[in-house]
């Protein structure tokens, strides 16, 4: 399986990192080795002094597809989840400065937290509230209504480049409020108030 991540999909997050608003979705990949095993803590890797959390709504693909039209995109997923796109911001800043790829900053082991999935019929996908709390304080509070590109548009766009396969996961981008994790932090993600993950930082 592969993980396809969308960058810069929420205007306020683009502002907080002083990024340019893209003409098209920004896409990058994480390998399956990036997935943090269930119930494991996240260990801050030795190559970074600035690991950021980015909470994101996840879409699990359940059918193979290529050049999927937006109007048919809903047929390619039944489940929605929540996860974290852990980012070595210091490493990413260096990559950006030099115009280099982001993999070292974004695709390292444990960088993809994949929480619980829920049937999409349980939610209104155009108005889905999701939150990340750090040590019981809300640090990110997002709603899919603020996405620049909606889930079905993302599937249509991404599938022009990559064949989507059953089990692939799309990380749909993070809202504002990203920040650094420290040892002993506890991160909890909720979708419409339902807990999707709970991660300890070591
Ligand atoms: Mg992200």
Describe the structure.
This protein is α+β, with helices and mostly antiparallel strands and 202 residues long. It has one domain (3-33, 45-123, 147-181): Fumarylacetoacetate hydrolase, domain 2, CATH 3.90.850. The chain is built from four helices and 13 strands. The strands form three sheets. It has a six-stranded mixed β-sheet, covered by helices on one side. Strands 9-8-12-13 form a four-stranded antiparallel β-sheet, with no helix packed on it. A hairpin with a 2-residue loop joins strand 12 and strand 13 (194-200). The mean pLDDT is 96. The site of magnesium ion has 7 residues, from strand 1.
Summary, kept brief:
This protein is α+β, with helices and mostly antiparallel strands. Helix content is 14%, strand content 35%.
**CATH third-tier fold name:** Fumarylacetoacetate hydrolase, domain 2
**SSE arrangement, N to C:** EHEEEEEHHEEEHEEEE
The strand count comes to 13
Lateral strand order in the biggest sheet: 2-1-10-4-5-7
For this structure, what is the CATH homologous superfamily?
Fumarylacetoacetase-like, C-terminal domain
What is the second-level CATH architecture? Answer: Alpha-Beta Complex
Tally of separate domains: 1
Q: N-to-C terminal Cα separation, in Å?
A: 27 Å
Shape estimate = globular
Largest sheet: 6 strands, mixed
List the helices and strands and how they pair.
Layout: E1 3-7, H1 11-16, E2 26-30, E3 51-53, E4 55-61, E5 77-85, E6 87-88, H2 89-98, H3 103-106, E7 112-119, E8 129-134, E9 137-143, H4 151-158, E10 169-171, E11 179-180, E12 186-191, E13 194-200
Bound molecules: magnesium ion.
